[in-house]
């Protein structure tokens, strides 16, 4: 019996995870990725919550723990760079693991590559025409092919979503914040186990030790919002420079590193809400369906969603509509509360005013005291 063929667009986190699970459940997946290879670098992300048992079932959790970042503590600074809080973070035995996005993507790709999954790099879809029996796919480079199902796992700026569901502006909600990152030299941080965060009204600056390459992370509101042009690197650099022009501590040095880098990361922080995640034989997965900016849950939700989608397709063979509906119902219970919290979190993480910043820091100190008391009690047991 011929295995159903599924095209997965996107080889970041959700795509390879889904390819792995579909292969194990009797499907023949093909993953297409517009980049020429798996992307390197990227911020650290935390695999947590429902993604942990998914990683365990894949057999990759020990490997992820080996690749974990060296980050073991958080130091919070006031606007003048003085330390106001030092908080130990999760231990190696905690039910979470922090890795770089690139490392997670590589591990998932290696797992999927050991199955029947096919990977096509340096290519993308340009047209999707579906009928009752399948989807005719036109690629930028490869010859046209027909698939039983198509999955858009191609991120917040999803091409599949644009082709099938409509333009991005219908689904993306701007938080009024920008996110930017740049890799640094290894000697840019004094303590390779410590993450340092400085916040002033409307701007946050983080030094993250990562695993091998430290990162500077900028999260801010711009006085003059920049037009959204993903390819205008000069505009991105000017926007960051203007936003941090009066910030003290190490901001001038870190902004200079951002300006010197040929291709630093820069993007408006948005959430994505799509009323229905499927249309016919096409379904959305991960950030393409429901991005939750600022919460750090994107990768975990992508892995969780990939497992749920594959499980529902296997549970409803030949009935993709029912499988898609069951998958969406399961995942909306996970992402819905997260998306409802994102506005409050953005105001807490990057307060607009000094009084708001003072409240945030007071909460931070209280959390620190509670953590220290709990640690002492645990040590005395």
Please tell me about this protein's structure.
With about 375 residues, this protein is an alpha/beta fold. It has helices spanning about 15-25, 50-60, 60-65, 100-115, 160-165, 235-245, 250-260, 285-290, 300-315, 320-350, 355-380; strands spanning about 5-10, 30-35, 45, 75, 85-90, 95-100, 120, 125-130, 135-140, 145, 150, 170-185, 195-200, 205-210, 215-220, 265-270, 280, 280-285. The strands form four sheets. The protein has a seven-stranded mixed β-sheet, sandwiched between helices. A hairpin with a 5-residue loop joins β9 and β10 (about 145). α1 runs parallel beside α9 (about 300-315) and α9 packs antiparallel against α10. It is globular, with a radius of gyration of 21 Å. The mean pLDDT is about 90.
Quick synopsis:
The protein is an alpha/beta fold and 381 residues long. It has helices at 14-24, 51-58, 61-66, 101-113, 159-164, 233-243, 251-260, 287-290, 298-315, 320-349, 354-380, and strands at 5-9, 28-33, 44-47, 73-77, 83-88, 97-100, 118-121, 125-131, 134-139, 145-147, 149-152, 172-183, 194-200, 203-208, 215-220, 265-272, 278-279, 282-284.
